[in-house]
Amino acid sequence: MITKKEMYSGIFFIVLSVLYLIGTFFIKEYNAFGDTGINSASIPKVLAYLMLILGSFQCVVGYKAYKRDTSPKEEVTFNIQENNKSIIQQSIDAEEALLADAKEDKKSIALTFIFLFLLAIFIESIGFIIMSTFFLVAQMTLLTSPESRSKKLPFIIVISAVFSVVVYMLFTRGFSLLLPSGVLG
Known about the structure:
Layout: H1 2-24, H2 42-70, H3 80-126, H4 128-143, H5 149-174
């Protein structure tokens, strides 16, 4: 069942990438760097092609897994009476673990939307560098396992700050695009 979902998600992304690619041809081209071949439609086209390749790859992998899962299998027999209690207990434990993971996933998704909402609200007043740093720190901390969060937090803060500054400089200096400077500027 999961392999069919992988194939269908691959097909969905192929269709989406084709529509996205068609949309890139309607982008008004602006040559910020002169006649270098790079314009305002270049990156969206590259992203559309990458999405098309990844969707195709997802379809192929899903199809191969589907064929592997639907091929005839050898039957495995074992003594049910000996392993009955342990199999039932293993099933119960696995189900409880899946439920706990599902609750954690829902919490992570909700927190991600809250982080994005706060970023969108405060980016103009506080600024891109500070808000993107806070967003990246919050998101990376959320995605890091709870056991290793305190150990990895200094690294996460440094990476987030450096990345935010580099992106800000790239867009403002390199691409001559304005990003909110907020309290820094």
